[in-house]
């Protein structure tokens, strides 16, 4: 792997993290009543997305939708089969309760993501049935078509789910 490929991967990871961090900071700034700081965090977050996407394109990291669905299945599968189980075991051993809850929620949801992506990959067609997804704002549980009365992963109320239309 060339130095530049390494650098693109590092820069993609850093810009991606900055994007999510700034969005979290913007939410906090709004909660604290600092609307202008919130705006600047959101502006920079948007710019970091531009940087992250450019780095990813330079890495040839975006393929056809069929290729991207396969890549998504592989990534989610790695997370729920290998990455999170090891992290859950370490958090249990270290008594890190908040991290444990966070890892467990993610672990359950990544397995569902892998299935949802695989289903799309199996039936991929431009005239396939169209329906929304719903996402739990607490644990990220993701479901097709209708939100449940209660989240099956974290028990949050279904009417809090975010619609992805
Ligand atoms: Fe940036
Ligand atoms: Fe996921
Ligand atoms: Fe949930």
Question: Helical percent range?
Answer: 55-70%
Task: Report the order of strands and helices.
Answer: HHHHEEE
So what's the overall shape? globular
Count of discrete domains: 3
Number of helices: 4
CATH topology of the largest domain: Ferritin
Distance between the termini: 39 Å
Strand content: 5-15%
The CATH class of the largest domain is identified as Mainly Alpha
- Low-pLDDT stretches are none
Give the full name of the CATH homologous superfamily of the largest domain.
Ferritin, core subunit, four-helix bundle
What Rg, in angstroms, do the CA atoms define? Answer: 18 Å
What ligands are attached or bound here? fe (ii) ion
The largest sheet is:
3 strands, antiparallel
Mean pLDDT equals: 98
User: What is the strand arrangement across the widest sheet?
Assistant: 2-1-3
CATH architecture of the largest domain: Up-down Bundle
Describe this protein's structure.
By secondary structure, the protein is mainly alpha-helical. The chain folds into 3 domains: 3-58, Ferritin, core subunit, four-helix bundle (Ferritin, Up-down Bundle), CATH 1.20.1260; 63-126, Ferritin, core subunit, four-helix bundle (Ferritin, Up-down Bundle); 129-165, Rubrerythrin, domain 2 (Single Sheet), CATH 2.20.28.10. The chain has helices at residues 3-31, 35-58, 65-94, 97-122; strands at 133-135, 142-144, 162-164. It has a 3-stranded antiparallel β-sheet with strand order 2-1-3. The radius of gyration is 18 Å and the shape is globular. It starts with a helix and ends with a strand. The mean pLDDT is 98. Bound molecules: fe (ii) ion (3 copies). The site of one fe (ii) ion has 8 residues, from loops.
């Amino acid at each position: 792997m060339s130095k530049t490929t390494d650098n693109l991967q590092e820069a993609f990871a850093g810009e991606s993290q900055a994007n999510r961090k700034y969005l979290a900071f913007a939410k906090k700034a709004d909660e604290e009543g600092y609307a202008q700081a919130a705006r600047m965090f959101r502006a920079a977050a948007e710019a970091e997305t531009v940087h992250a996407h450019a780095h990813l394109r330079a890495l040839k990291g975006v393929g056809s939708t069929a290729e991207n669905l396969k890549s998504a299945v592989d990534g989610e599968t790695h997370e729920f089969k290998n990455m999170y189980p090891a992290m859950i075991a370490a958090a249990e051993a270290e008594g890190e309760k908040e991290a444990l809850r966070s890892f467990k929620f993610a672990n359950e949801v990544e397995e569902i993501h892998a299935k949802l992506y695989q289903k799309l990959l199996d039936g991929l067609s431009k005239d396939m049935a169209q329906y929304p997804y719903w996402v739990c704002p607490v644990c990220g549980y993701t479901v097709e078509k209708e939100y449940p009365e209660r989240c099956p992963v974290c028990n949050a109320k279904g009417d809090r789910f975010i619609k992805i239309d």
